[in-house]
Fold these 4 entries.
Entry 1:
Amino acid sequence: MHSSAAVRRWSIGYGVLVAAHLGALLAGADDLADVTQCLLMPVLAGVLWTATRWPRGHTVTWAFGALAASFLGDAVPRLLDGDAAFLAMVGCFLLAQVSYVVAFAPRARRSVVRTRPAWLVVYGAVLVGLVALCAPHAGTLLVPVAVYGGVLTAMAVLATGLGRLGAIGGAVFLLSDALIALARFVPGWDLPGQGVAVMLTYAVGQALLVAAVASDNRARRRARPTTLAVRTPTTTRDNVVAFVAVRRVGV
């Protein structure tokens, strides 16, 4: 059986790993940075596993899929070069975003789509602005980048259905990928500490999404016993009535 102590251990491990990765980036220790980045998502999956209980259900299952695809997005491009590496990264993280969209879709009624539709204008403006900045220099990569941007924005919108943690996590993840796109396609883009900023927002965004998914799982499990408690007496009375009726017929 999982315990809060296990959640703390995995969470501390993730925090230490993130710190080690950022430190490696700042120190120019490329090998250590590669190893620690590839370990981020497996350790975060450990956090999600220990922070949730059976029945984990739809949202948790698809969140694990998103973490697995994110791991591939961190690892696979290191085996390739140039545009092939970039497309591999985009493809893997596209799968991750699709998985998150599927995970969060059942909470759409609690998201800004239904509760604050005016916010859709803000998310749409961010997407249009980002694509517009990248388009002049994206060339043949414009279509995959635009598709990825659309799915990424949809993930951030639907993540608001998991509450504040989900909303912030989705927005921070969107920021991380926006920084990558700007550095790749906008000439002269030179953000100080670009690599550290990308990975910090990536690690924090993913962690917040996992925390939101775990919180949603706890809320659903707390609601389940209440539902059963309400239904059980009715079922029992119905069974007793049926039994008495059979006995009377037998008499």
Entry 2:
Amino acid sequence: MNTDWEWDDTLFLGSASYYRRGRLPYAPGLADALAEILALDGRGRLIDVGCGPGTVALSLVDLFGEVVGVDPDSGMIAEAAREAAGLGVGGKTRWVRARAEELPAGLGTFTVAVFAQSFHWMDRELVAATVRDMLGSGGALVHISDLKTQTRGVEDLPYPAVPYAALEELVGGYLGPVRRAGRGVLPHGTPGGEAVVFARAGFTGPQRHVVPGGQALERTSDDVVAGVFSMSFSAPHLFGTRRDDFEADVRRLLRAASPTDRFSERLPGTEIFVWRKAPTAAARA
């Protein structure tokens, strides 16, 4: 990533309460797919690094004996803890406010480590090497993201599509043309090339799996507004005293796009890359 951007603790400031409602869910079947791929049996320990409000960790909670979520945002950690309590799984989950760069943080050894659309915010070389050392023998690192290579039209669905291009233009009108991220900007976006980083850290693979998407989803204006405020580049704090004005403009735009206050959308597929912890030279010997 050709930028001088550095992480700061305002990256998702104020977004946690919007996240669960606003973000599109992962494709149905993600938990079943991982259970089969990794032969999970309700034992072992999972660490979700950059867990947000626990979206993925809580969907996998029945597959492990203990689930640990780590995130630097206090709002995200609080939301995850509330959701876990509501689901009755507070006793087998733990939520730790910490940056990934602060691991291992005395958290012990894990069977599986998950990064769900979070790895690009981290010091990737450092975190990958640290997480490798936190995995037990035969442990797996799982990188999860939306499938970016599919077209998700709304033909034959009952409501208009969410006007994402117009929303992006509106955000740019308020915050400028360069993507905001915390106190800085990301003129070149977030980095890719995870495969090189994981291989260099001592992982083998990957195995690639796709959980099919395409399921129809109905969204309201409130859902879409929550989605806007759940994003790092349009987090509520970035608008300062113009936050209410921005939300009013978003809602005007959405009313013009769909007077019924309903939108149709299709879920993206979910892409899974599974990396295995390579044995050390000593272990091989």
Entry 3:
Amino acid sequence: MYAIIRDRGMQYRVEQGQVLTIDLVAHAEAGAELELGEVLLVSDGEKVTVGSPLVSGAIVRAEVLDHVKGDKIVVFRYRNKKRYRRRTGHRQRYTQIKINEITI
């Protein structure tokens, strides 16, 4: 059984027991339970339920495992012949969740 969910503009294909990395959910602490209600599609192997745009009554429950940081991205700005160089970095913050249950 799998479902396609939407979380703040991003779509994910999830299955029960899967560990997923999504954008930071700041209000959720580790061990908390999330309900992802924007379910676009649910398939249980033989029957596929497609929403228009959402499947009514479908909920995906997930447990927050941890908050992690992504890889560092180096941003380097340079102006030719002007002695202008700026090196900065960025690490995006993510939330790791584990999908516990998909209900229709």
Entry 4:
Amino acid sequence: MGSLGRCLARSLLRGQPGPSRPPGPRCYGSAPPELQEKTLVLVKPDAVQRRLVGNVIQRFERRGFKLVAMKLLQVWEGYNVVRSTRAMVGDTNSATAAAGTIRGDFSMHVSRNVVHASDSVETAQREIGFWFQQDELVAWESGDRDYTYGP
């Protein structure tokens, strides 16, 4: 089971009798509502063909963002997620994308730069609307919300 599945399983166990949580990595991504943003990340066909989807998802989870919808697409949510995503993804031009960024590590050419990421909160809202109906976005709370973002 992937970390998203473990996080969902943990959230189902909250408030139920018995063991408090299964062992495993912490779940992140639930900022207070006033700090929430959503962004759209499209894993492009060249990344899918090269089997990089899991690597991309893991990088977002490690940054504390949570996946809230998926159609072979990902929408990430969290505090300052748009700016953080742009930094994680790297420059559009793979030749100038920094090492350690998704494009810097995996992109070969500007036309095959592995992912698309929204460049602003406003753009993200518009782009999310192109790909998802409101009822397709999953609302869930991480058990580690207070640990990640404070009380």
